[in-house]
Specification:
The complex is a heterotrimer of chains A (393), B (152) and C (726).
Chain A (H helix, E strand, L loop, with lengths): L7 E5 L11 E7 L2 E8 L7 H6 L3 H9 L6 H16 L7 H29 L3 H22 L8 E2 L2 E2 L5 H25 L3 H7 L7 H6 L5 H5 L6 H4 L20 H25 L17 H6 L1 H13 L6 E9 L2 E9 L5 E7 L1 H6 L2 H5 L4 H11 L3 H5 L1
Antiparallel strand pairs in A: 1-2, 2-3, 4-5, 6-7, 7-8
Helix pairs in contact in A: 2-3, 3-4, 4-5, 4-11, 4-16, 5-6, 6-11, 11-16
Chain B lengths: L1 H6 L2 H14 L23 E3 L14 H5 L5 E7 L5 E9 L8 H5 L5 E3 L14 E2 L1 H19 L1
Antiparallel strand pairs in B: 1-4, 2-3, 3-5
Chain C lengths: L2 E6 L2 E6 L4 H7 L23 E4 L6 E2 L10 E3 L3 H16 L15 H9 L16 E3 L3 E4 L8 H9 L5 E4 L6 E4 L14 H5 L5 E3 L12 E6 L8 E7 L2 E6 L15 H5 L14 E4 L2 E4 L2 H12 L4 E5 L5 H11 L2 E4 L2 H14 L15 E5 L3 H4 L1 H12 L4 E6 L11 E4 L5 H13 L8 H10 L4 E5 L9 H15 L3 E3 L6 H7 L1 E2 L9 E5 L3 H4 L10 E6 L11 E4 L8 E5 L2 E5 L9 H6 L30 E7 L6 H5 L1 H4 L6 E5 L7 E7 L2 E10 L6 E6 L4 H6 L8 E9 L1
Parallel strand pairs in C: 1-5, 16-17, 16-24, 17-23, 18-19, 18-21, 19-20, 21-22, 24-25, 25-26, 29-33, 30-32
Antiparallel strand pairs in C: 1-2, 3-4, 3-5, 6-7, 7-10, 8-9, 11-12, 12-13, 14-15, 14-26, 27-28, 29-34, 30-33, 31-32, 31-34
The chains are: A alpha+beta (393), B alpha+beta (152), C alpha/beta (726).
Chain lengths: 393, 152, 726
């Protein structure tokens, strides 16, 4: 088929408020219609994978907080799981830590989806949803601050457990939040789900059918909106997801509206997962007993020689996994977030590769945009929910 | 039915109702520079060096924090003191590079380096963002006061 | 050698008679943790960490002392072994002080590493720790007994391998601690070789120059060659951000021929780089004073002054081969060098062998008997003396030494021939005949018995120490080479300076009186130190290339700073062939950089021809009533270290004249007379000095020593002298 001739080439981004970061699009227009598009990425490339090669396993965590900077916990969790798999200690991590990890991951999903909801609605003209969504997100960040000390870059996961046990106050506030949040979700849906402007901007826009989505390797809510129920949590359960009863929301139209619905349903499911975790979570330690993996407790370091030398060796030389290659993935808010580590038996990874769901999801963008109007670009980008920090790494 | 709904603007009115309801609720925001939300107990602000009860500093210049730091924030200088004991000459924390991950605190084997609750440290001069031993000890005094209050 | 099989952890390993289980395991990549065992030391079995299970044995056995036997089945990783190990380590750790944060060893501490891998997971001990609180501070070594785990590595190293027996254990049982004799290193006779510091598995023995200076894990490690004597030791230089923090030998890890053994110069002399007397800018004479000039100006002046003139070249022999080649290219091939004495020795050897060269030092390891000729090898090239000692202790070689003065090597030598200095050549001639003729009677029983033990053996010869500085060096060279030639044995002539061999190869070395040039060029040398007894010839212009403010700087017209050995990249021609230098340090000035701007003279290299004579040397030393003087700089006094290193100066000795105790009853001030020059010096009676000899020990060469030795260059030994009442 002969390509339609473009009348105008429009540059959109990288400093455009609705490109979710620094995504640059070069749109070829015929009238209002897009006949060709090219996306240009790389504006926030920080060489995270290379940085990881030069850091000891324990030092890498804070760096990965900043890959997908709105969902630090799932980033960390994926990496931690990969290293634990490499060390062969997945089963030895205490159960309480596993539950805490799931709670944190699901809270992260909520906070990430809330950001998406707020900004996406704002871009499509609904100002108040933005305010309400950020109001609830603030509560989640407060929870993070209470348990981990950081609001965005929590730094909560550790290889072999989590940094610290949950405080009383955290559990109290979490319960409060879980009671309140579903009501708030209803409010958002009241504001948007039937709103005629919202519907006309989202229904039938940016349709990705099931086959295309699978062929492009798309994962996460975008895939599930197209009718495929792939979810890492269900297919390859990690932590304690295997024991928890939850549904994976699936819609079949594959348009912007369905992606919105999937994410809204996911937040509800997250609340349920957290509730179940809280009821099942046992008491006990939150870090593995093996002191060749995790820093010994401070009490030991201050008072005993055994603890002190373990501490010194671990800090100076770090943990040394055996030679090997490993892949571990988690279901991040944006899709399957995978970590592939090649270890050469030293204290630093020989190669570390991240499978960034955002990058793979937006790679369909040039194809998807064809035939749409310029105004729909915003709606489509928003619905794919890319995070440029993760795209460029 | 659908047409009727559409004609009656029920979808929009539903939204308006929520907006109206929220208008009469108390505000959740704070007026930032005038009001502040106190940070939580585990908050990771800028660094401080703790002191012993007798006023000497606890740091023994073991470089573990510097070794653990993922972005080379910390550097220090040491020397042999007059009585042959280890003496810390300078301890620098370069806040321009700090990630506030808290690994240095975890790495400290003497409970010397800690993180305060201070999160406002903007400066006009970039050099002032490099904290030296004296600044850190001053912050340590502040931290210990805060710690005592927190415990209470 | 016949080998047999043993099984370790299910793996069949080859073992030889005499091997311990630990050695076999190590060869086959099976790691058994150790504390007291060290590759270079005799196994002791003190720490009990290397416990293994042997099939058939009721108890666990220490692998380091267990000799491998045919069909032995050893298990190193069973639960029982692991529990026993963890228990031993737990007990060691219980009383260890919690000083990792301030200990300079942490990061490369064997207790940390082994404790981390094989120790208990948690400590059960909550009682009070034992605090011995005994810190012994020497000038360069400090012992902190709280950290000591009593593995006795330092004691074995000091007593057996180095032969000094300075360190020992005081008290018994719970109160035992390590201490030098009388608690004082200098009084105990410590040579400050630093080997005890090197082998200490924990931070108990410390390098005081490095104390609290940096942390081991974060320094850049560079392997280079020490340039401070002819031993050519491989050393590891640890630096951080371009500043040297320490030098370590890493005994057991070091791949050089010195196996990691160092001496006080190599271990502690690195601080000459940061000496206050280091020259930082070129200086040019203007009127009566020297003023600082920039590099371009200095090169310009130098170029102008050198144009078309002949130079008097004074060379020190620790320059790299690359620098020497360039120097010859620029200044011509005629030079006065401190290797002149060594050149004479080599010339003597070459008259028999035909080549101005020496065999590799490692050739002694393939012989059965090592014949050593020379005194004070442990002062001139300390590490060579250590290696000769180790050849006896570890490799079972027989050592036979011929000399005048007693030496530390005598304690391990099979036999020692001590003869007056003038009789050395005669003794050698007796040996030449006696070694090959069993019926020969020299009239001296000792010589006959030595000749007998040389007879029919696989021999190797080592000539070193004071021989290159002896009046008879050329004749001794001929004689010993004749003997070696007849025996078909390798002959190692140990160079006194790092690159003496290359200097001899490249330059025509001449007497200082033969220099008739118009420009004096001094490279890396100091007249009094390197050319005692030589005066600077009068010339129009004097250029000095030196790293330091030497005494000659005041007489110079142009002074150009250069770098030191640790700051260079290049090669040496040493006794183990080509030795390479590497460095991460950066210097503003470099000798090669300056020479690059000077025009080349285009001298073609030619092989030096020495006429073959094939005859033993002739005795040249005859005396009547005079004493034979040997001037011996202390171990520290031979190089720039004694002049500019703050560390080494702490342990340098003092000046004294040692005389036989029969010739001198009590210490007193005397006047030493050489020809018509006199020197007032404190004389001390010493039983080890043979009759008819005088030994002048100096901490360094100074002007008065230089003027005493006037006209004797390059000789320091065998100089006729008289002792007069002061």
């Amino acid at each position: 088929m002969e390509k339609e001739r473009a009348d105008l080439i429009l540059n959109m981004g990288p400093q455009h408020p609705s490109t979710h970061g620094v995504l640059r699009l070069v749109l070829e227009l015929k009238g209002e219609k897009i006949v060709g598009a090219d996306s240009i990425i790389g504006y926030v490339h920080r060489g995270v994978e290379k940085l990881a090669e030069n850091r000891k396993y324990m030092q890498i965590l804070p760096v990965f907080d900043r890959v997908d900077y709105v969902s630090a916990n799932t980033n960390e969790l994926g990496f931690v799981l990969a290293v634990e798999k490499l060390l062969g200690i997945e089963d030895k991590v205490p159960r309480r830590a596993q539950f805490l990890r799931v709670i944190m991951a699901e809270l992260t999903r909520i906070s990430s989806h809330l950001i998406w909801l707020g900004t996406h609605a704002l871009e499509l003209g609904a100002m108040s949803v933005f305010l309400y969504a950020f109001r609830e997100r603030e509560k989640v960040l407060d929870l993070f601050e209470e348990i981990a000390g950081g609001r965005l870059h929590t730094g909560y996961m550790r290889i072999g457990g989590v940094a610290a046990d949950a405080t009383e106050k955290f559990l109290e506030e979490l319960n409060e939040f879980l009671e309140l949040f579903p009501l708030k979700l209803d409010e958002y849906e009241d504001l948007l789900s039937e709103n005629r402007i919202w519907l006309s901007r989202t229904k039938g826009v940016g349709i990705i059918d099931k086959e295309t989505a699978i062929n492009w390797g798309i994962t996460g809510p975008t895939l599930r909106a197209a009718g495929c129920d792939y979810d890492v949590r269900k297919y390859y359960p990690y932590c304690v997801y295997g024991e928890i009863d939850f549904k994976v929301p699936v819609y079949h139209n594959g348009d912007v509206y369905d992606r919105y619905k999937v994410r809204m349903d996911e937040m509800r499911e997250s609340v349920k997962i957290i509730k179940e975790c809280l009821s099942k979570m046992p008491q006990g330690p939150v870090q593995i007993e093996d002191t060749t993996v995790i820093l010994p407790p401070k009490e030991e370091v201050y008072n005993t020689m055994v603890g002190l030398i373990q501490h010194f060796e671990l800090v100076i030389h770090g943990l040394t996994p055996p030679k090997g290659e490993v892949y571990a993935a988690v279901e991040g808010p944006r899709g399957e977030l995978g970590y592939y580590i090649v270890s050469d038996g030293t204290n630093k990874p020989y190669r570390l590769r991240i499978r960034p769901p955002s990058l793979i999801n937006i790679s369909i963008l040039p194809e998807l945009l064809k035939g749409h109007y310029v105004a729909d670009v915003i709606s489509i980008i928003g619905s794919l929910d890319p995070l440029m920090g993760e795209v460029d790494r | 039915m659908n047409l009727l709904k559409k004609a009656a603007f029920t979808d929009l009115l539903k939204g308006m109702k929520i907006t109206l309801k929220t208008m009469f609720k108390p505000t959740v925001t704070v007026h930032y520079p005038f009001e502040k939300v106190p940070p939580r107990k585990r908050f990771r602000g800028i660094h401080a060096l703790k002191l012993n009860p007798d006023g000497s500093y606890r740091c023994e210049a073991c470089y573990l924090c510097a070794e653990m730091c993922p972005s080379n924030v910390i550097d220090m200088e040491m020397t042999e003191g007059e009585n042959g004991e280890k003496e810390l000459v300078d301890f620098t924390v370069d806040l321009t590079r700090c990630l506030f991950c808290g690994l240095c605190v975890e790495a400290c084997p003497r409970d010397a380096i800690v993180m305060t609750d201070i999160y406002e440290f903007s400066q006009y001069d970039i050099k002032k963002l490099v904290l030296h031993k004296e600044d850190l000890l001053e912050l340590g005094r502040y931290y210990q006061k805060w710690e005592r209050e927190r415990e209470r | 050698m016949e080998s047999f099989k043993i099984v370790i952890d299910g793996k069949e390993c080859e073992a030889f008679a005499g091997d311990t289980v630990l050695e076999v395991a190590e060869r086959n990549g099976i790691v058994i943790p150790v504390f007291c065992y060290h590759k270079e030391l005799r196994p002791e079995g003190a720490c009990r960490v290397c416990l293994v299970e042997v099939e058939g044995a009721p108890r666990l056995v220490t692998a380091c002392t267990l000799k491998a036997m045919p069909d032995m089945v050893v298990k190193t990783n069973t639960e029982r072994v692991k529990r026993a190990r963890a228990g031993v380590i737990e007990l060691i750790l219980n009383n260890h002080t919690l000083e990792c944060p301030i200990c300079d060893k942490s990061g490369e501490c064997e207790l940390q590493m082994t404790g981390f891998r094989n120790g208990p997971k948690k400590s059960r001990y909550r009682e009070k720790r034992r605090e011995k609180d005994i810190v012994i501070k020497g000038p360069l070594i400090e012992i902190d007994n709280d950290r000591c785990i009593l593995c006795r590595r330092c004691i074995r190293m000091c007593g057996e391998n180095m032969g000094n027996r300075v360190l020992g254990i005081l008290n018994r049982g719970y109160k035992a601690y390590i201490s030098p004799f009388n608690g004082d290193f200098l009084e105990g006779g410590c040579e400050h070789c630093g080997s005890c510091v090197d082998v200490c598995p924990v931070g108990s023995l410390l390098d005081r120059a490095f104390k609290y200076k940096d942390r081991p894990w974060r320094m850049d490690k560079t392997w280079t060659t020490c340039s401070l004597c002819g031993s050519g030791c491989t050393i590891e230089v640890d630096s951080y951000h371009g500043k040297v923090k320490r030098v370590v030998g890493r005994i057991g890890v070091n791949r050089g021929h010195n196996k990691g053994y160092l001496c006080v110069r190599g271990k502690w002399g690195w601080d000459i780089i940061y000496s206050e007397k280091r020259l930082k800018e070129p200086l040019l004479r203007q009127g009566d004073s020297l003023v600082k000039v920039d590099f371009e100006k200095a090169v310009e002046v130098l170029k102008e002054k050198l144009e078309g003139r002949e130079v008097n070249l004074f060379l020190e022999s620790s320059l790299t081969s690359e620098e020497l080649t360039k120097i010859r290219d620029v200044f011509g091939g005629k030079a006065v060098s401190d290797s002149y004495g060594y050149y004479k020795l080599l010339r003597g050897i070459a008259s028999i062998t035909g080549a101005l060269n020496t065999s590799l030092f490692s050739s002694i390891y393939s012989s059965d008997v090592v014949f050593v000729l020379g005194d004070f090898i442990e002062e001139f090239t300390p590490v060579i003396a250590t290696l000769l000692r180790l050849a006896v202790i570890q490799k079972g070689k027989r050592l036979i030494r011929l000399g005048t003065f007693p030496s530390k090597l005598d304690s391990v030598s099979f036999s020692t021939l001590l003869v007056p200095q003038e009789e050395i050549i005669d003794t050698l001639k007796h040996l030449i005949v006696g070694t090959f003729d069993s019926s020969y009677q020299s009239g001296n029983k000792e010589i006959d018995s030595v000749a007998k033990s040389l007879r029919g053996k696989k021999l190797s010869f080592v000539v070193g120490g004071n021989v290159p500085f002896s009046v008879e060096s050329e004749e001794i060279g001929k004689t010993v080479a004749f003997l070696a030639d007849r025996a078909g044995a390798p002959l190692v002539a140990i160079p006194p300076k790092a690159n003496s061999l290359k200097v001899v190869e490249l330059f025509d070395l001449v007497e200082p009186s033969n220099l008739k040039g118009e420009v004096n060029v001094l490279i890396n040398c100091e007249l009094e130190r390197d050319f005692p007894g030589v005066e600077l010839p009068s010339a129009d212009f004097t250029v000095i290339f030196t790293p330091f403010y030497t005494p000659e700087v005041s007489q110079a017209d142009l002074v150009i700073p250069i770098e030191l050995g640790l700051e260079k990249r290049g090669t040496f021609k040493g006794i183990e062939g080509e030795l390479s230098l590497d460095s991460v340090l950066e210097t503003p000035f470099s000798l090669l950089e300056v020479l690059k701007y000077l025009p080349s003279k285009g001298i073609s290299s030619k092989e030096k021809q020495v006429p073959l004579i094939k005859e033993p040397g002739k005795k040249v030393l005859h005396r009547k009533r005079e004493l034979l003087l040997t001037v011996l700089p202390n171990r520290t006094g031979w190089n720039s270290v004694s002049y500019y290193s703050e560390n080494v100066v702490k342990v340098s000795g003092k000046r004294e004249l040692l005389l036989n105790s029969q010739e001198l009853r009590e210490p007193k001030l005397v006047s030493l007379r050489v020809e018509n020059k006199e020197l007032q010096v404190q004389a001390v009676p010493d039983a080890s000095v043979p009759k008819g000899h005088a030994l002048l020990r100096v901490e360094r060469f100074t002007r008065d020593i230089s003027s005493l030795l006037r006209g004797n260059f390059p000789f320091l030994s065998g100089i006729k002298c008289e002792i007069l009442e002061a």
